Amino acid sequence: MPPARAWRSYPQTYRLEAARCRSCGTVHFPPRLICRQCQSRDFETFRMQRTGKVVTHTIIRTPAAAFAGDAPFAVAIVEMDDGVRLTTQLVDLDFEELKVGLPVRLELRRAFSEGDAGVIHYAYKAIPVRS
Amino acid sequence: MRDVAVIGVGMQKWGELWTKSIRDIFVESALLAMDDAGVDHLDSMYVGSMSPGIFSSQEHLESVLADYLGQHHIPGTRVESACASGGLAFRLGWMEVASGLSDIVLAGGVEKMTDISGSEATYALATAADMKWEGLSGVTFPGLYAMMAVAHMERYGTKREHLAQVAVKNHANGSKNPRAQFPFPVTVEQVINSVKVADPLNILDCSPITDGGAAAILVPADKVKDYGKPGVRIIGSGHATDSIALHGRDDLTTIAAAAKAAERAYAMAGKKPEDIDFAEVHDCFTIAEIVISEALGFFEPGQGGPAVESGATAPDGKIPINVSGGLKSKGHPVGATGIAQIVEVVEQLRGAAGERQLKQARVGLTQNMGGSGGSCLVHIMEVM
Question: Is some CB atom of chain A closer than 8 A to the CB atom of B197?
Fold first, then answer.
């Protein structure tokens, strides 16, 4: 991935910055230029809460080359407490723990790297919140 | 707008076509369609192809293909909408004839997928997902559909066996299709015990990597008699898009773009789901056929799984789905799939589907989609 492409999304991948529509309150992650709900173009930027719940999940057993060393790994769609959904790896858990509704927290982890001399990409991954 | 009819279709046997290039594959299927229609020239053509740049290191496809088809200087357009590229080419061809701009238009599709490695092909296909915001997680296409399956199972109690029964039915259908890549039956046990890809989907829940092409010839309906060939009338065309990322959709148990495209096609055709005799749908994964059979209005939400189990979608059922074998058995050369669905519907409506011929085939529907449902085309056709 070209370094500039990765750099453009650091506010989201590193800091979970989202945009809240000042007109209707809809939260967008990543931010957009126009609200999908009300067409407003007026947003405020804020950092999302790191907690949410699993909406659906899978275990990837045959990944693309960049993730070959990680397989098998769990992927989930998570609904964040701020209302947006995102797709993320779910780590630090036994696959038997995977279930819809599982409370999770996002942490910054190594996402993937591009060869011996390539950029190492970091991003959010979800871990279970255990009571 | 003018009424439009299909008067010729063509496709070769699909599979791993090592001796044929992307241009050979397209020209072969285009010539079959032109010969079937009895036309010796085209006014224009649209070709669906998802990723010739990655699969075949060749962009600017319309130039290559029009030239190699011997149609020098015709207007040519390569169309891309991921796995719905073929369906979109068909819609654009229909629009051009309906508008009165052209009288003989070829709508085709082609993909040559086996020249590159499996992991390179996985990458090429993954570009139909949200590369940035889904790609970050390492999720694959089987993984996205697996997450739809988990959501559907969680809400409606859809069973693992229901998914497997889609593969069993479609392979049974495909075993009667001489052009299918995998024309052999499979059992529920084989599907459930095949290699795991993305839980709960196994390899036999997934459509394959395929080389293949398909083509259809479109003319004004009032000129069909000039050709002396049986025409099939296009009575409805619907097209819709949705968020490219699965996580951007409100409901993960349906494919809203399919429901929206179907609503538009039904409205144009003046038909309801119960008026459709049979359908070719986009079973890229077994769960997709179940979800789509609900989105098209053939079954209530949550009833797609039990419907397969009951035989309602078998060739002798209430609404036969994928009598061709579907993507699952016939193969899935992504850009060609939407046109191959048209080929099957036209042959069924002409009563020329051989061993697969349905008894009741007067109105047929095709549903072709891109990615996890970010784009969808629905067409309805009727005997003339």
Answer: yes
Q: Is A99 on the interface with B (CB under 8 A)?
A: no
> Of the candidates A71, A55, A54, A76, which has an alpha carbon nearest to the alpha carbon of residue A112?
A71
Known catalytic membership, residue B83: yes
Give the domain B137-208+235-383 fold. Peroxisomal Thiolase; Chain A, domain 1 (3.40.47)
User: Global pTM?
Assistant: 0.98
Q: Of the listed B152, B162, B282, B332, which one is catalytic?
A: B332
CATH architecture of structural domain B4-117+210-232: 3-Layer(aba) Sandwich (3.40)
- Residue of chain A minimizing CA distance to B152: A56
pLDDT digits (tens, 9 = 90+) for B193-208: 999 999 999 999 999 9
Write down the domain spans for chain B.
4-117+210-232, 137-208+235-383
Q: What is the 3-state secondary structure (H, E, C) of A33-79?
A: CCCCCCCCCCEEEEECCCEEEEEEEEEECCCCHHHHHHCCEEEEEEE
Per-residue pLDDT of chain A (131 residues; tens, 9 = 90+): 888 989 999 999 999 999 999 999 999 999 999 999 999 999 999 999 999 999 999 999 999 888 888 999 999 999 999 999 999 999 999 999 999 999 999 999 999 887 777 788 999 999 999 87
Say yes or no: B287 contacts chain A, CB-CB below 8 A: no
Predicted confidence band of residue B122 (pLDDT cuts 50, 70, 90): confident
Residue B162 annotated among the catalytic residues of the structure: no
The ipTM value here is 0.97
Give CA–CA dist B297/B271, Å, rounded.
12
What are the C-alpha distances in Å from A62 to residues A34, A90, B195, B201, B203? 37, 16, 10, 11, 10
On chain A, the residues whose CB falls within 8 A of the CB of B371 are none
Shortest CA distance from A1: residue in chain B: B132
Could you say which of B134, B138, B154 has the minimum Cβ distance to residue A70? B138
B374 interfacial to chain A (CB closer than 8 Å) = no
